[in-house]
Amino acid sequence: MDSLSRTVVVGAAQLGPIQKHHSRAEVVQRLISLLREAKLRDCDLVVFPELALTTFFPRWFVEDITETDHWYESSMPSSETQPLFDEAKKLGIGFCLGYAELTAPDDVGARHRYNTQILVEKDGSVVAQYRKVHIPGHAHHEPDRPFQHAERYYFEPGTEGFGVWHCFNGLVGMMICNDRRWPESYREMGLQGVELILCGYNTPIHYVPDPSQDILQGFHNSLVMQSGAYQNGTWVVGVAKAGVEEGVDSLGQTSIVAPSGEIVARTLTTDDELIVASCDLDWCQRYKNTLFDFDKYRRPEMYQRITRQRGAIVQPKP
Ligand code: ING
Known about the structure:
The protein is α/β, with parallel strands linked by helices. It has helices at residues 24-40, 82-91, 151-154, 183-190, 217-232, 285-288, 294-297, 300-309; strands at 7-14, 45-47, 94-102, 113-120, 126-131, 164-167, 170-176, 196-201, 235-240, 243-245, 248-250, 255-257, 263-266, 273-280. Helix 1 packs parallel to helix 2 and helix 4 runs parallel beside helix 5.
């Protein structure tokens, strides 16, 4: 990190498929290899995908959910993930890691399941945890599907919302996968002055409810992250778990997007691949202090009133 400017060298560490038989130890070694490559490329921070420690297990429906507990992390770090934390601290690199979280029993003995990301500073200190707010897919078995997307069965939505934290010499926020499709996710952090948003994703190419969207997955992925970045004057880093995982093909196109909305780096493969960009956080002010000066130009007090004044939305004629 350059001491004069607030430039953060960010690595987006895309993962290729993690198959069911891949152990956590094998996956952690892949993550450590990407960290070491990031060190050689002077990275301050490395962003890993959503659910980066296991295969995307919501593609299967398991009646007894306790039989899936092994896909979750009961502690972070654990003995299996500690080597990643140790290596990152040794290399002096911060990281953001997505994983399935299974909480300890609460005061009524219930354990909660979240789709979570953790953010760790260069000194190894844990900055924050974020729990995915927008949970896509379905909550019950849908046997007619070619594969499940049962995230609403396996995860509760996070209840802490979207935070922004002072770290890496700037204001950093997190979102996970489907969150990136909702403008509110970016705007909630934009209103807190976010300068760098970190987002992991697992996005199957085939979208069962509407297959016409399959061909548009890459376009929609870029569309939402570029607009979110531009409309909130922030860097956005989107990191895929990509390729054919247990027979399901998932989008790659890991990208680093500037506050201008321009894609400054993108992966070329659907394997483990690191892309790097020098993110000048001061670039955010070019948009936050002009076009998107919220205090000057944004008018939330008017948005509801206009709808009310114009009465009910005109219904199309039967
Ligand atoms: N995955 C997908 C996502 O929002 C999805 C769900 C797939 C939505 C394809 C639309 C089309 O990118 C997760 N994990 O949220």
